Amino acid sequence: MEKTYNNKAWFFVLPVLLLVLFSAAIPLMTVVNYSVQDTFGNNEFFWAGTGWFTEILNSDRFWAALQRNLLFSVIILALEIPLGIFIALNMPKKGLGVPVCLVLMALPLLIPWNVVGTIWQVFGRVDIGLLGRTLAILGIDYNYVRDPIDAWVTVIVMDVWHWTSLVVLLCYAGLVSIPDAYYQAAKIDGASRWSVFRFIQLPKMKRVLLIAVLLRFMDSFMIYTEPFVVTGGGPGNSTTFLSIDLVKMAVGQFDLGPAAAMSIIYFLIILLMSWIFYTVMTSSDKDA
Amino acid sequence: MARITLDHIRHAYGANPVADSDYALREVHHEWNDGGAYALLGPSGCGKTTLLNIISGLLQPSHGRILFDGNDVTEVSTQGRNIAQVFQFPVIYDTMTVYDNLAFPLRNRKVPEAEVDKRVRDMLGIIDLADWADRKARGLTADQKQKISLGRGLVRNDVNAILFDEPLTVIDPHMKWVLRSQLKRIHKQFGFTMVYVTHDQTEALTFADKVVVMYEGEIVQIGTPAELFEKPSHTFVGYFIGSPGMNVLPAQLNERSVVVGSQRMDLNVPPQTKPGDRIELGIRPEFIHLGREGMPVKISRIEDIGRRRIVRAEFEGKPLAIVADENTEIPAEARVSFDPAGINIYANSWRVGGEA
Amino acid sequence: MLELRKAAKMVAGEYHIHPSDLTLERGSLNVLLGPTLSGKTSLMRLMAGLDRPTEGAVYFDGIDVTGMPVQKRNIAMVYQQFINYPLLTVYENIASPMRISGKDKATVDREVRKAADLLRLTPYLDRTPLHLSGGQQQRTALARALVKNASLVLMDEPLANLDYKLREELREELPKIFAQSGAIFVYATTEPSEALMLGGNTATLSEGRITQFGPTIDIYRRPADLTTAKTFADPPLNFIEVVKSGGGLRHREGDVLPLPAHLGTIPDGPLTVAFHPHHLGFTQQTENSARLAARTQISEITGSESFVHLEYDGVKWVMLAPGIHNIDPDTGIEVFLDTRHLMAFGSDGRAIAAAAA
Known about the structure:
heterotrimer, A: about 290 residues, mainly alpha, B: about 350 residues, alpha+beta, six-stranded mixed sheet
């Protein structure tokens, strides 16, 4: 791309930069500060070096939470991406159905996280929830408060319900940009439905899919509100993800040092994973 | 290869068409020969793309039938019609190599791989892309991509017809020449039935044996390039073909002669007209001779366009375009004479006769 | 007067536009002619001030405007795509530049109606662009450029997306319409025939270089080098390699072309000779014609003329002959080359002596 020589555009970005500085960069520095010190309150700090980091990296609790997080993200991606593509492929391309579908799809995205959590918390309750009661009547033993598997299923179904729409909308945007001539040519070439998907639709959706995967990975890896509202991390520690663990540590136990060290490790993991995703998915672009 | 019969075809995009103007395509009833090269020529909105889509099966006509070799295919899908099409913008499978692009239609039809290889290699030679076989199709130039689109159609060697939808739109002028003559050579070599849609007269005339000129949903003339040039059956054909188009002058008929303003020209055969018809005389700029003899004109401008000059003049109060080649001398007090073979007489815009 | 003084544009260590000098006079029509990616658009962006040249300077009426942003210059631009405000009527579209510059209502109305009349848009003033044909949409964009009363009007292949016949009409009207405004008019195209019909001056471009600049017809007749000649030829030029010795141009197969007057004084030696397809013919037009034996390949007929593709000693030629000649492929025929218009080039590609006018 050509660069402009007009530097005034920076003034427009400046407010955002300041906001990011105050809301992200400065807190981050505070966190770094905490992570290498120890305190017993009263604003007295002692140098702790890499102590907190070693402690975190040696704790089973951290590794267990990390494993849960990774498993959760993998399941979420494995469900939401194919499902999103499938729904997008089957959405109408023209006519009255288009706005109807788009609004329906956008609805879950407009609901705040904690509300989604509350909805599902009530929805799944065995005593009064529609889902919980129905399942109980059908003779299925379902109780997310007691059974770890049921808790996981609930959190996953909730996330799929909440966020598949995002994948759908992104894929749909990719699909409608394909000119009709491509479909006509494929018909004429006698291509099967699968070939059309594999050689026309998938290549054209690749860029938006990359964005969808990245967004969904980062979001699911940082999941906090919904499981916190529904299961509170339980039963036991079965749905205690890194973020929940972190809050427990920082707010519940007021262990600022280890919590800060954990935040930084957490942050670096997300950065690393996103970078790996990005490089892997864009590398296949350069083989022309 | 197939003979294409268009049996009383009409098409309207809206529901319940009543008036003629509701139809994007008014009555089309023609038979196109097996192995012929046809061009559909006309301005945007004349119905040429509608007709092409009806032939390819992307559209179902509101009325009428379409037959390939006498078999009714009106209800048959695009796949079932066994046709090939080259679109305005190159359609290629960018993740595949050039070779795989050409092999795609064959593999879809379960042709044995040995046969696929043989036919694809042949086709790569014909479209001059043998050296590019293993390249990804994405990085190619527009003309190479168009050749791949064409190759994907030709490689099947059993297609009923090959359809072209303004295939040279995105090609640079120099490459147009190369592709056009390559296309013509392929037509001569294989004898496919070809239908070529365009708004560019040069493309239509040089490509086709028969040019179908369309205007407002109707076919106004089907003819060889020479017929369209010499005897345009409608003033629209005269205007649309030729650059500049035909001069059309209001005229009166007077027994065996035609009168334009104060000028009278004799006709051999008096045309058949009814009283009250609007009579016009059409003459192409190429059939007007500029010299010291003949009828007076007032020259307003001379455009030198290289190999020839376009002389803009006023004749009996009406604008007249005259074409003169680069060696012709243009006198100051110029006069014109009309080549009798180039005179056409129109009544209500339709040709009723000519040739003085 | 717009001047480029050694203006160049370098991107990632590569010249998109090589250092170029170009002077465009007020009230002139200037065509930029070259194939896709030859640098037409890049050059226009330098002229407009959308890009700053990486070297050299841009002067307007003697004032250095290098680096002055495009908003501060009085420029109008028309693109290949029909760019209008989709929700505004044609009237408001045309009026938009005057609204921005804060003209009073009466002036706006007068100017809009004048421009609409000139571009035959009066019946459509109340419609929105989506309800117009391509030609009408582009005429709306042109009208907007016109009312802006810009001192520099840049048009980047404005007619490329229009039907052939519409293009022909607008091409004839455009120079007339803008000639009155006194602006510098720059028009980019890939088509030599379009340049010829527009007339004015032409700058031929090839791979980011201006190869020649001057009156259009002069460049067509007397290209300074082979690249320019090839850029400015549609149908493509034909070539023959000959050796000049004494009174003739000798081809290695033994054919001799009679030496035309305008090449009489050049020194003996090898030459590349180029000629246009219409200088080949079936009949001997003048005593300056050479009789050559060629083989036919394919004939294309336009109704009044025929393009006959030939092969002469392994080289592909095109002949444009009046009348209808549908000759079977691979037939030996005799053709005559009118040598009065030959263009001769040396081994360095420079023109040795250009064709007589």
